[in-house]
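Let's see one such:

===
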Amino acid sequence: MVKYYIKRAGLPFLYLLFMIMPALGILAIGDNLLWLKIILGVLCVALYCVVVAMVCYKEGQDAVKVRAANDLERMVIVRTGENRPLKIHEEYKPYKGFIMGLFTVIPLLFLAALHTLLYLTAEVRWAGAAMVLLYLVFFEFFMMDAVVGDGATESVSETPWYEMYGALIAVPIIILVSGISYILGARKILRQQEMIKAKQREIYGE
C-alpha cells in the first residue's frame, strides 16, 4: 500500500522540482516590481495546483473503474469459488486522494522536523534551506520583499530559521487539492455508471 502511494505522489513531487527555477526567477525580479512578483508567484502556485488536480482527477477516475472491475471479479468468485486476483490497492476510496497529497509533503514534514532538531541542538540550517528550496513555489511569498538580483539562491539559505516554517503552507494546499480533485474525478465516473444503470433499467426493467 505504501508503495502505491509513493508511486502516485511521484509526479506531483517531480513537478515541485520543476517549479524551483521559475520561483527563483520570480525572486530575482527587482523589489521595485513587487506587484509583478506577487502576480507571477500566484500564477506559479496556480499552475502547480492545476497539474496536481489533473493528476489526481485522473487517478480518481481510474480508481472507480478499478473498483467496478473488482466488483465483477468478486461476483465471479462468489459464484464459482475461484480465487481470482483483485487490484485492492488501486480501488477507489474517498480518503485515498488526501493520502496521496500527504505523501507528496512527507519530505517537507521530515525536513521541518529535522530542521527543528538540528537548529535547536547545533544551529545548523541546511535542512531548513532544503525544505524551503524544494517547496519554493509556496515559500517564495515569504521572501518577495527581501530578494533582488542574482542572489536568490543564497538568500534561501540566509532566510531566518523560524521563517523557514512558512514552507509548511504547502501541506494543507497540496493535501486539499489532491483529495478534492481525486473525489471529483471519481464522481464523474460514478455519475456515468449511474446513468448507464438507469438506461439499462429503462430498457430491461428492474
Remarks:
- Confidence is low (pLDDT under 50) at residues 147-151.
